[in-house]
């Protein structure tokens, strides 16, 4: 089992690992402290101080605030509210629901029929970073993609209490 340094994990996050090392990393068992190294790398990149409890994506995290509350927060510092609530309801949303909107990102005849599917793009309200995309039938409710059981994750997977 390989044991990668925080510097190697940082290169992984930044997309700087050579293919051979990346393939080796993907093929091997994960080192037991990989999650902690990954979170430490992400934490160093933030301009805010709240502790990252769980990354949700490259620019979205569940964090513990100094008052003890747990919220969803973006790299820009925007707080979407309690992590158990659907953060997408606080995001800026762009809906691609026409041929013209689809053609901005797809070649002709290579996109879905807008009568059958729309793309919803969720953006950070402060800096405009794209946080997530979902493809759904028109009129479908906003999907709450993920509501983690933080206590179970920390106790059963990481074998430590959620502080």
Residue ranges: pLDDT <50 for 5 or more in a row? Answer: none
How much β-strand is present in the residues?
15-25%
Oligomer classification: single chain
- Report on the biggest sheet: 4 strands, antiparallel
* Strand arrangement, major sheet: 1-2-3-4
Helix/strand structural class = alpha+beta
The number of distinct structural domains comes to 2
Elements, N to C (H/E)? HHHEEEEEHEEH
What spatial form do the alpha-carbon principal axes imply? globular
Q: Indicate the radius of gyration in whole angstroms.
A: 19 Å
Q: On the 0-100 scale, what is the average pLDDT?
A: 95
What share of residues is helical? 25-40%
Number of DSSP strand runs: 7
Distance between the termini: 29 Å
- Count of alpha/pi helices: 5
Could you give the topology of this structure?
Layout: H1 6-13, H2 19-27, H3 34-45, E1 51-57, E2 60-64, E3 70-74, E4 79-82, E5 92-96, H4 99-103, E6 118-123, E7 130-136, H5 150-157
Antiparallel strand pairs: 1-2, 2-3, 3-4, 5-6, 6-7
Helix pairs in contact: 1-3
Please explain how this structure is put together.
- This protein is of the alpha+beta class and 163 residues long.
- The protein folds into 2 domains: 1-45, no CATH class; 46-157, no CATH class.
- 26% of the residues lie in helices and 24% in strands.
- It has 5 helices and 7 strands, in the order αααβββββαββα.
- The protein has helices at residues 6-13, 19-27, 34-45, 99-103, 150-157; strands at 51-57, 60-64, 70-74, 79-82, 92-96, 118-123, 130-136.
- The strands form 2 sheets. The protein has a 4-stranded antiparallel beta sheet. Strands 5-6-7 form a 3-stranded antiparallel beta sheet.
- The chain is globular and about 50 Å long.
- The mean pLDDT is 95.
